[in-house]
Design goal:
Strand order of the largest sheet: 6-5-14-15-16-13-17-12
CATH class of one domain: Alpha Beta
Radius of gyration: 23 Å
Number of strands: 18
Strand content: 15-25%
Bound molecules: flavin-adenine dinucleotide
Shape: globular
Helix content: 25-40%
CATH superfamily of one domain: FAD/NAD(P)-binding domain
Structural class: alpha/beta
Number of helices: 18
Distance between the termini: 52 Å
Length: 564
């Protein structure tokens, strides 16, 4: 249904993408588009900590120590698969590199700093693990092959099946290098959806063949906010798009229809995040409403060097609005599947800023690689998983430095995460979720000391490293893996649900054919679909999706790799 105006609920990547396509492909005037969002970055953050200290999602526990930098997540991209993201970035100028588009900026940086991970897995007493040996046995291979062979039309057979369920007769799978790398590269947990694992085994099949070196992984020059979001924001502002930040869209008005199934938004309730004041926005018949119905960083909180990140029990603001729509209309999915099981979705991450490169140089020595190349995961030797098996304790990403435009030459910024935040540290005897930034730094030094090839040990420099810390900011994200939670196909709305006249859903909690989620790619694709729908552009003009799972050489390489 063609419209000429749009209201965007949520100012993340998906809706920014939608706005760019409406302007460039739909030939809309920017002034026809209004954003209402809690902030200007969504999950794609990255800035000096003092800029995020007062953010809404940290409102219950404002940051005391605002030194250093913070990014709640690291980012790995993949040009070959992220075709919609790259198309989007080719449409807007970089904000840091003159005369380059944001896509050229990323490609230029990535070509000069290609990823070749030499220390993907590390185990105490052993050091760098030979992770090229995936360690799969026949049962593992058979079950993985079944996922690769399962066609999309049969996906519903994996409705409400967790990864643990799928491999229930094969506990060996969870002790393989393949699993340790797959779970930490993509953030799958054993409680996650087997349906989604199947999607990854299809869309990321070629990555399977090079998983130990992360060769296909591409990275932006700086953090996601400065390299991806700011170019979009600047472009849209110049095009006349209106942004209202600090606003929560808290309720809907829908038109009544005889069968109660027509989805037509006629009004929105807004709540000012600072003052709590409510206001009303009328939505006329010529206006599309494009809603990002879930954010994995909603209700996140920050700590600092001496304070753990407190747990915020708020239901996500995006999911709360989704729930109101899903309560009224039967075909809009089931938000509780994703937002009412923190045990399956939570993680803790941290951003560590130091004022010299002592720690960076020690990590370079221990992992034998320069900054910018790696995701390093530290394996336990003790049983830590629910199934009583060893597992990855923590992972770090040592970015190419600087990772922030304003970062000083003498500063280092490192990001890391704990996929299972209730597990207890090996060097600091408390659950990761309860650790301060200082304790997380100690835990990291402890892990590094156990894989240090010597003859000197990083422990000899522990005091110097601790003295160099500007800040280490723990971040608790109750919904970080929520998008992977166990689900049925009908638990997520379509981008354009049946009977909708003006409402579209975008982001990571929508059902789109083939697309795997937890990717910048699927978020952009959903926004593009919504834009094409409302601008009346044929879907045949969407960016073409590559199908590596149908490519015989890729399939052969993957088969060979399973025997490594
Ligand atoms: C820790 C972490 C690591 C990641 N790593 C990678 C990676 O390596 N590679 C990769 O491709 N992707 C990665 N991602 C995922 C990537 O960030 C997301 O795919 C992308 O940001 C999704 O964009 P979005 O616009 O759908 O949602 P978001 O970025 O979450 O933005 C949506 C925004 O809309 C707001 N909103 C929604 N409803 C309302 C409302 N009612 N009122 C006001 N505001 C509202 C939300 O609060 C949020 O701010 C990672 C994410 C995290 C958190």
């Amino acid at each position: 249904m063609i419209k000429h105006k749009a209201i965007m609920i949520g100012a993340g990547l998906a809706n920014m993408a939608s706005a760019v396509y409406l302007i460039q492909e739909g030939h809309w005037d920017g002034s026809a588009i209004t954003f209402y969002g809690i902030d200007d970055h969504g999950s794609n953050d990255g800035s000096a900590a003092d800029e995020q200290a007062a953010d809404y999602w940290n409102k219950n526990h404002p940051l005391e120590n605002t030194m250093g930098y913070v990014a709640r997540g690291g980012r790995m991209l993949n040009y070959r698969t992220y075709v919609d993201l790259m198309d989007l970035l080719s449409r807007v100028p970089s904000v840091t590199e003159p005369n380059m588009t944001a896509a050229e900026d990323t490609k230029d940086f990535d070509a000069k700093h290609p990823t070749f991970d030499k220390a993907r897995l590390l185990r105490r007493g052993e050091g760098i693990v030979n992770a090229g040996k995936l360690g799969l046995d026949n049962m593992d291979r058979m079950l993985l092959t079944k996922l690769v062979m399962m066609p999309e039309k049969d996906e519903e057979r994996l409705d409400n099946v967790t990864i643990a369920d799928y491999f229930r007769d094969d506990p060996h799978m969870f002790t393989t290098n393949f699993w340790y790398m797959w779970e930490t590269t993509f953030a799958f947990r054993t409680q996650s959806s087997a349906q989604e694992l199947r999607r990854y085994m299809h869309q990321m099949l070629f990555e399977f063949t090079q998983i130990e070196h992360l060769v296909g992984v591409n990275r932006t020059r700086y953090n996601q906010y400065e390299s991806i979001m700011l170019p979009l924001i600047e472009y849209l502002k110049k095009a006349g798009v209106r942004f209202e930040f600090g606003k929560i869209v808290s309720d809907w008005q829908f038109r009544d229809s005889p069968m109660q199934d027509e989805i037509t938004v006629t009004g929105l309730e807004l709540t000012d995040a600072k003052t709590g004041q409510n206001s009303h926005v009328a939505v006329d018949g010529d206006t599309a409403v494009i809603f990002t119905n879930g954010s994995i960083t909603d209700s996140a909180t920050l700590g600092d060097f001496n304070t753990p990140a407190h747990e915020n029990m708020d239901y996500g603001i995006s999911a709360a609005l989704w729930k109101k729509a899903a309560t009224r209309f039967y075909n809009l999915g089931n938000p509780d599947k994703f937002f009412a099981d923190r045990n399956a979705s939570e993680w803790v991450s941290f951003t560590l800023t130091t004022k010299d490169h002592t720690l960076l140089n020690e990590i370079t020595r221990i992992t034998t690689q320069v900054p910018g190349n790696a995701l390093n995961s530290f394996l336990s030797v003790a049983p830590v998983s629910e199934a009583g098996k060893p597992d990855v304790n923590m992972s770090i990403v040592v970015h190419h430095q600087p990772h922030f435009v304003s970062q000083k030459a003498n500063e280092t910024v490192i990001w890391g995460y704990f996929l299972y935040p209730r597990r207890t540290g090996e060097f600091v005897a408390k659950p990761y979720i309860e650790m301060t930034g200082k304790e997380m730094t100690q835990e990291l030094i402890g892990q590094l000391s156990m894989v240090d090839p010597g003859p000197v040990n990083i422990r000899d420099k522990e005091q110097a490293i601790m003295d160099s810390v500007v800040n280490c900011i723990p971040v608790y994200m109750p919904y970080a893996s929520a998008l992977f939670n166990n689900r049925a196909k009908s638990d997520r709305p379509l981008v354009i649900p049946e009977h909708s006249t003006n409402l579209a859903f975008t982001g990571e909690f929508v059902e789109q054919p083939y697309q795997m989620i937890f990717t910048e790619q699927s978020a952009v694709r959903s926004g593009e679909i919504a834009a094409y729908h409302f601008a009346g552009i044929p879907m045949s003009r969407l960016v073409k999706t590559p199908y590596y799972d149908k490519d015989i050489p890729t399939l052969l390489r993957a088969t060979r790799k399973m025997f490594a």
